[in-house]
Amino acid sequence: MASIFTKIISGEIPSYKVAENEDFIAFLDINPNAKGHTLVVPKKEENKIFDLSKQEYIELMEFSYRVAKAIEKTVPCKRVGMSVIGLEVTHVHVHLIPLNAMADIQFKEKVTVSKEEFLNLSEKIASNFE
Ligand code: 5GP
């Protein structure tokens, strides 16, 4: 069965997209730790990050780097943190999270983001993506 992220990639499920190329997509996390929390996902559906080939892993990191730069330009924060978990959605993804405090990376406290804010954030991050 297709993962929820494969359904986002195919457009079956909507998302607030910030970047995309042939192999990767980045969109805002729907239940974010912080405003601007973004997921970077390989279009190839793989469960665990270290089951990617070394080349696929490097390309995922390179794409994530570019997305993180765009987040940094868009969202005021001390730094952008990176985390890989995958216990909820078993389709490889990198969490990129604007950090101001340790709590922002701990997946406990969530922030509420309106539809307008999601849209505004995704458009601004997308416009800063190089
Ligand atoms: P993990 O698998 O790394 O533990 O967490 C999965 C992440 O995906 C969570 O932060 C969750 O909020 C996010 N997520 C789950 N379903 C959706 C969805 O349908 N759309 C988006 N944009 N994010 C999702």
From TrEMBL:
Q: Which UniProt keywords apply?
A: Hydrolase
Taking every annotated instance into account, which residue ranges of this chain make up the domain HIT?
4-107
Name the Pfam families on file: HIT
Please indicate the residue ranges that the annotation assigns to the motif Histidine triad motif. Answer: 91-95
Designated name of the protein: HIT family hydrolase
* Organism of origin: Tenacibaculum piscium
Protein's GO biological process: nucleotide metabolic process
Which GO terms fall under molecular function for this chain's record?
A: hydrolase activity
Task: Identify the domain of life.
Answer: Bacteria
Q: Where is the active site?
A: H93 (tele-amp-histidine intermediate)
